[in-house]
Write a structure and sequence with these properties.
The complex is a heterodimer of chains A (257) and B (254). Chain A has 257 residues and is mainly α. Chain A has eleven helices and no strands. In chain B, helix 5 packs antiparallel against helix 6, helix 5 runs parallel beside helix 7 and helix 7 packs antiparallel against helix 8. Classes of the chains: A mainly alpha (257), B mainly alpha (254).
Chain lengths: 257, 254
């Protein structure tokens, strides 16, 4: 039983690593981290590491998002288009297990990508003599949470729209909206029409709130980070992901394949 | 069978609404509430509005704030837009009232994007109060910093209390109590969190009020730091101060 799940996870990871997009994206992220390293000279003598630390962390996050939107989602649809999915589903594998396996596979790829990019980043950070602290690793952890959430959303969007482009656009828009929730609520407060206000408030609660994990914008202040509750974060992420995955499973079961 | 599927879907959606609502409510009371909202604060420089907004909406505040910081250093390190003459890093040793009129906007932009960037508050306040001779603007900016760093209030070693010292120093300056102002600035520097700019300001003030030995000590420290912006100026100032000290001693002997 578990063996078949591991096989799908392994297959998913292998497929991801084989693509040219994956190699390009990871290499490009390293180049940009290096550019961050070059920019340290411009940020003043007293704060040379700041730019490198911030650029590196931001690049890790952005490239994880790009990987999810371009590679992982694309691969899933490609499998349907090339009919490879029939070979897999002809084996004694349930559709739920297939979705779960693919999803965990994507996450393994994300973990490995974060690890690779983080290693490159740490090398540069060591060159500029920046002390790597626990807040740095907490930030990477929250990037993984964000990726977990957006992957489940992207998977659901893929199954809903069956188009790579629209799935990527929906996920990207939700990513933006998820970082914009506080401002969104501010606008909602200004709206006078009651019905619209209630509708938008419901939308606010349904949008995945990525600001909850946005430690990277504040991680250099230990006082501030101490207010971040990791357990609540995991709870939110798990809850949202489980719902998206369950809906994906229902949709995939209904699919005429 | 169909009914059970509808039921599962209903339970899932109810769960989604309930959990996200509940967790949102819990989160609202935590660190999330400290983040300044974009629409509640006006972005100060219109020409960078698109860049700043994109940074905020895609969650890259800090990276854009770094870009804003570099742009601030370039603005203040370059020729003043209000002046015709070509100058290079003149602000290190000269007071420039009436110049760099957009300085407050530039520095405010940095901390709107990254409200916890204490170094920018120290730097901005120092420059506005003593280099550009605009203590009212310095106090205005400093108050924003105090508001954003208020959560550090319980820690006496925090940047919040360093900012309070800057505030006191500015009030001493406004009240004409220069000796007290110098002491306040000295205690800020001794804490080790002051930018080199503020150290240079204090050294210049010491020189202005005739405390040559104290000024010499600070310039020697700046020379030791190896900051390329200050090394040459420090060498020049050290020579000048040594001559002044000698002169003062000779006058004293006479």
């Amino acid at each position: 039983m578990m063996n078949s799940l591991f096989n799908i996870i392994f297959y998913s990871v292998k497929e991801n690593f084989k693509t040219k997009i994956y190699v390009t994206v990871v290499l490009f992220s390293m180049v940009l981290i290096f550019i961050g390293f070059l920019l340290t000279g411009l940020s003043g003598f007293e704060q040379p590491q700041r730019v490198l630390v911030n650029t590196g962390i931001a690049m890790i996050e952005i490239f994880c998002l790009i990987l999810i939107l371009l590679n992982s989602v694309g691969l899933f649809l490609q499998e349907v288009d090339t009919k490879n999915i029939y070979i897999l589903l002809s084996k004694p594998i349930s559709r739920n297990k297939y979705i779960l396996g693919r999803y965990i596979g994507f996450l393994v790829v994300i973990i490995l990508s974060i690890f690779i990019m983080c290693c490159v980043h740490i090398v540069f950070l060591k060159i500029v003599k920046w002390n790597i602290n626990k807040e740095y690793f907490l930030t990477l952890f929250t990037i993984f949470f964000k990726s977990t959430l957006i992957t489940s959303v992207a998977l659901l969007a893929t199954l809903l729209t069956t188009s790579h482009l629209s799935a990527a656009i929906i996920s990207l828009l939700l990513w933006i909206a998820g970082h914009f929730t506080s401002e969104f609520m501010f606008i909602v407060g200004k709206i006078k029409i009651k019905f619209l206000q209630v509708f938008l408030k419901i939308t606010y609660y349904l949008i995945p709130n990525f600001q909850y994990f946005n430690i990277k914008d504040f991680f250099d202040s230990p006082d501030f980070v101490s207010k971040f509750n990791l357990i609540k974060g995991i709870l939110y992420c798990l809850s949202y992901t489980l719902i998206c995955l369950s809906l994906s499973c229902i949709l995939f079961k209904k699919k005429d394949l | 069978m169909k009914m059970s599927k509808v039921f599962i879907l209903f339970v899932l959606i109810t769960h989604l609404i309930f959990t996200t609502f509940l967790l949102n409510e819990i989160y609202k009371k935590s660190f999330y509430s400290y983040i300044p909202k974009m629409f509640q604060i006006k972005l100060p420089l219109e020409k960078f509005f698109i860049l700043d907004s994109v940074g905020i909406i895609i969650g890259l505040r800090k990276v854009v704030s770094d870009i804003a910081w570099i742009q601030l250093l370039q603005y203040y390190g370059g020729k003043p837009p209000e002046s015709e003459e070509e100058t290079f890093l003149e602000h290190i040793t000269k007071i420039q009232p009436g110049k760099y009129l957009d300085f407050l906007k530039y520095v405010r932009r940095v901390t709107i994007l990254d409200p916890l960037y204490s170094f920018a508050y120290f730097y901005g306040t120092g420059v506005l109060a003593w280099n550009l001779e605009r203590p009212d603007e310095a106090l205005e900016y400093l108050n924003e910093g105090l508001k954003n760093l208020e959560f550090q209030k319980n820690n006496p070693e925090s940047d919040y209390w360093q900012l309070v010292k800057y505030q006191q120093a500015i009030y001493y300056k406004l009240g004409g109590k220069y000796k007290e102002m110098l002491d306040e600035l000295k205690s800020i520097i001794e804490k080790g969190k002051a930018p080199h700019m503020v150290k240079a300001i204090l050294a210049n003030l010491y020189k202005k009020y005739g405390f040559y030995k104290e000024a010499l000590f600070i310039w020697k420290e700046l020379l030791k730091s190896g900051d390329p912006e200050y090394v040459e100026r420090a060498k020049f100032q050290i020579l000048q101060l040594k001559t002044l000290i000698l002169k003062k001693e000779r006058n004293y002997e006479k």
